[in-house]
Description:
By secondary structure, this protein is α+β, with helices and mostly antiparallel strands.
Amino acid sequence: xxxxxxxxxxxxLNIIFVVMQSKRQHFIDTLQKFVxxxxxxxxxxCILGAGVQFKIVPGRKTKLGDFRTSPLQRKPIITVNGDLNxxxxxxxxxxxxxxxDTYRQYGWKVPAHGLEWKTAxxxxxxxxxxxxxxxxxxxxxxxxxxxxxxxSSGADVQLSRVLKTFDQNDEITLESLPxxxxxxxxxxxxxxxxxxxxxxxxxxFGTQRIFLIHALAAITxxxxx
Length: 225
């Protein structure tokens, strides 16, 4: 009788394992639509292992992804824009998982992108860097900016610049325009000014108000009429 119960127990465990593996494979298959195939399994295991609600959402102008949690939520939530190019989707997902890792270890007591987060992000990035499956230019900027823990606002811009090269659209960025060029952003007309670190001082046409606009903002050039 004991052997029978033992067989039943292991049969149930085997069924559970098969179901879990089936769900994992389904998740991997889904992620392959959003990230390079070489990294779909790794990202799936990161997400499943983190015990987080992972949501792919329509594109947002204000952010690429986010992490949030509250006492009312059964699980923390990570959202990532579904319109990102495959490498942007991968890096953004790992970026947000690193926020979750940092929160679980330190709570909200540390800076959002401080040393603790950089360390967590580095740990998530190492497997994809070691795979040598990244494009050389992306591998180089990730290694320089994060693995060596020298991330700065300038390094972040460089990473964004490299990731944008994998976009399928032909967006024009603010940094590509000459000074004093007129351009349209969020249905408002601006004149490009001087660079201040990672943003340009831009004057809103008509009101003469000054705005700091990111160098990589997607804009529409206008004539000076």
